[in-house]
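INFO batch 0412 | record 1 of 1 | parsing
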Amino acid sequence: MEQKIKEFPAFKVNGFIMLAVVVALILIGGWYLVSSVQGLEAVLARGLKVTDFIGGEDSVAELVAWLAATLLVVIIPSLSGFFSVEPNQAVVLVLFGKYVGSVRSSGFWWTNPFVSKQKISLRVRNFNSKIIKVNDAEGSPIEIAAVVVWQVFDSAKSKFAVDDYSEFVAIQSETAIRSLAIRYPYDSSDETNTPSLRGIPDEIAHALQKELQARLEVTGVEVIEARLSHLAYAPEIAQVMLRRQQAKALIDARRQIVEGAVGMVNEALNRLATEQMVNLDDERKASMINNLLVVLTSEQTAQPVINAGTLYN
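INFO prediction complete | emitting tokens
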């Protein structure tokens, strides 16, 4: 089984120092080359042999080889070792197919000129998923979408674990949203007190973030926040569910009105009995309770009827 790659710091040297070294080598090599050419021109001007000035044919070959080696092996390849790193950015270094580390420190740097360099952004990003139609835990079709805030925390995993970590985040986010939606109902009644997508938004956001983090751990991505951005019934049942919610709200309102009316009637009867203002038999109590409930629960203003007595005894 292949060993998992984790990020570690790479070898690097301050780029300005190395730039000064390279410039110094170029100046020294150029000065030496110019001096040699001037010396050869002086020898030729006096009619002498080049071998007499340098010290032999072998010395001429050594001089040319040294200059070529200096330019080709030291100076020219070293120029490709320079690179820059911006804030909130990492550079992944690979040497002949082997990961040799990452550079996170912003600035101008120099490293092994034979490594390849791949820049990875460490900035915080947003992913706004498309609106997905899925069945909730009760089988009702709903529309759901979410916003995921994420960033790369391990550049090596992001580079080598998957082909495209941005696309991987998008696909796994939609998969996690679907998985979350089928575990919870859209809404729940007060009697059952079942957790629902609409009833506990903070818990749902935490559950989505946790599931996303487990899915994206392999890519070196950290999920900072995940929260539902759209939640609604599907259009084909939206009207039916709206009437259902309206009926439920009406029933709850009626229940609250009745509970309040019964409490007020009970308080009135208890107060009449305590203060002994009037003695009511069971029939009159029933009539009084009926009248009070009608007045308190009626949607229209009650019209009082005054009993002024009878004309004849």
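INFO post-check: The chain has three domains: 13-120, 125-233, 238-297.
INFO record closed
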